[in-house]
Amino acid sequence: MAVSASDKKTEFLAGVRDELPLQLGVFPFGLVFGIAGIESGLSALQTFFLSTILFGGASQIVFTQLVASGTPLPVLIASVSTINLRHALYGMSISRYLQHLPVGWRIMLAYLLTDEAYAISIRRFTLQPASAYMHFHLLGAGLTLWLCWHLSTAAGILLGATIPDYLQLGFAIPLTFIVVITPLLRQLPMLVASLVSGTTALILQGMPWNLWLIIAAFTGMIAAVITDSFTSREGRSS
Amino acid sequence: MMVSEPFSDMLIWCAIITCGFITFLTRFLPLSRCMPKQIPLSVEKALGYVPAAVLTPIIITAILAPDGVFVIYENMRLPAAIFAVLIALLSGSIMLTLLSGLGILWLLNYLF
């Protein structure tokens, strides 16, 4: 048992360690959200607990924008939920590694399954040898993000307008995502997925309820599968 | 867009909880055992492309349409992002990419 306990700890700490560099982008993003929440007219408590209850950066920003513009609530709920539909894709791609866990574990890991935690742990699940306790990696990554997100939200609420707009701290998140995806783009289908989904997203920007994101993701995935079937067929014939 | 009266506190809390509940279900359902055990190979392959297919649209819109409106003229985020991609490819370091990306953005905004 002693061995397994240290395996758990090793996986957990590896998750924390792998997730930490991403917090350089998460912290400024949380600050931006905290400020946006207060500016939109939400109370400090509502802004803070939005980070706990919703726990999804981009969707929280959209929530505050729609509250500020007085959007009818059904439209607001539909928009915010649509942005988070991508998490279902994360769940589907990661579920085979987590399917065997007891339901309590799956509830906790589902709650923690955000862009940043998924991006980090899927790399560990797919690239490194499997272990019985590798779900502790996702737990470590998820909790690291959760803690940083709450600290930075609180900091944003407290510091508020003392942080000037021209710093454009919201730019930190796309920058960290760039580091996550650039190494993947050396594979042709992944490059195609990126180009096609990016272009589609721009074309569909004006769609209601932020549907552009999920449609762009599907278009990119389909294009990548088609590319992959072409390239592997050529590989076989030559 | 329809503009109505500011929402009451209670309504906001209801909206927060509803959004949170739907988002949780979105994350949990694929991990619940209600989903089919065997998924087709093509779907499995497609799911392997999720990181690029989801993160690229988020990146691209944050650069070109930060407030939901497409901006290309005098958008300093574009050159800053291109520079950041190069740094990311060469270094693979989040710290370096973040500092140089934000640094270039601040510099360009200061100069122009």
Short description:
The complex is a heterodimer of chains A (238) and B (112). By secondary structure, chain A is mainly alpha-helical. Chain A is 76% helix and 0% strand.
How would you describe this protein?
The longest helix of chain A has 26 residues, at 212-237. Chain A has two domains: 2-173, no CATH class; 187-233. Chain A is an all-alpha fold. The model of chain A has no long low-confidence stretch (mean pLDDT 89). Chain A has helices spanning 2-19, 23-39, 44-53, 57-68, 73-83, 86-98, 103-111, 115-127, 135-159, 172-181, 188-203, 212-237. Chain A contains twelve helices and no strands. Chain B has a domain at 39-111. Chain B has five helices and no strands. The two termini of chain B are 34 Å apart. The longest helix of chain B is centred in the first third of the chain and has 20 residues, at 9-28. Chain B is flat, with a radius of gyration of 20 Å. In chain B, 37% of the residues are buried. With 112 residues, chain B is mainly α. Classes of the chains: A mainly alpha (238), B mainly alpha (112). At the A-B interface, helix 3, helix 4, helix 5, helix 6 and helix 7 of A face helix 1, helix 2, helix 3, helix 4 and helix 5 of B.
Query: How would you classify the quaternary structure?
Result: heterodimer
Class by helix and strand content of chain A?
mainly alpha
Strand segment tally of chain A: 0
Main sheet record of chain B: none
| Major sheet summary line of chain A | none
Percent helix among the residues of chain B?
Answer: 55-70%
Kindly state the percentage of residues in helix of chain A: over 70%
Average of pLDDT of chain A: 89
Number of continuous helical runs of chain B = 5
Strand content of chain B: under 5%
The number of strands of chain B is 0
Strand content range of chain A? under 5%
**Can you tell me the residue ranges of chain A where pLDDT is under 50 for at least 5 consecutive residues?**
none
- Rg for CA atoms of chain A: 19 Å
Specify the overall morphology of chain B: flat
Rg estimate of chain B, integer Å:
20 Å
